[in-house]
């Protein structure tokens, strides 16, 4: 896979992927810093230099930990920014005026209402009354859009006449 495709895939994976990538990078850099500090410590371990070596090792470890904490803070920022962008995209599609079809069903035991959004295949819900059916299908619409976007699918625009 070429670099351009990999970058596109990272963007499409969402906030969790961006956070995981950033934290993995931070973990790797922290471990490399710690190993570097340990190698420096061992190279300084000569008779009479161990107090100086211990202080340098402590300083390098402290610096590595500070860098790690900054990187983790940046990873959280990346996650929250990506999550906000994802929520904004979902809200955009939820706010489109897709028509809702309501109908009543009697199954011999009870009567209930079904809310369906024909423009979004499989997006439907049911409830005991029409108002609850509308609320329920709107939540189903949000979930349908979120899952479709996460999977890389297209969200259909509202049909003509809506």
Characterization of the model:
With 162 residues, the chain is mostly helical. The protein has 2 domains: 3-86; 101-150. It contains 4 helices and 3 strands, in the order αααβββα. The protein has helices at 3-13, 15-44, 50-94, 130-150, and strands at residues 101-106, 111-116, 124-127. The protein has a 3-stranded antiparallel β-sheet.
Q: Summarize this, please?
A:
This protein has 162 residues and is mostly helical. Helix content is 66%, strand content 10%. It has helices spanning 3-13, 15-44, 50-94, 130-150; strands spanning 101-106, 111-116, 124-127.
* Series of H and E elements: HHHEEEH
Structural class: mainly alpha
Helix proportion range: 55-70%
Number of strands: 3
What average pLDDT do the residues reach?
A: 85
In order across it, which strands form the biggest sheet?
A: 1-2-3
Radius of gyration: 27 Å
Distance between the termini: 42 Å
- Indicate the low-confidence ranges by residue numbers: 1-12
Shape: rod-shaped
Number of helices: 4
Classify the oligomer: single chain
Number of domains: 2
Biggest sheet details: 3 strands, antiparallel
**Share of residues in strands:** 5-15%
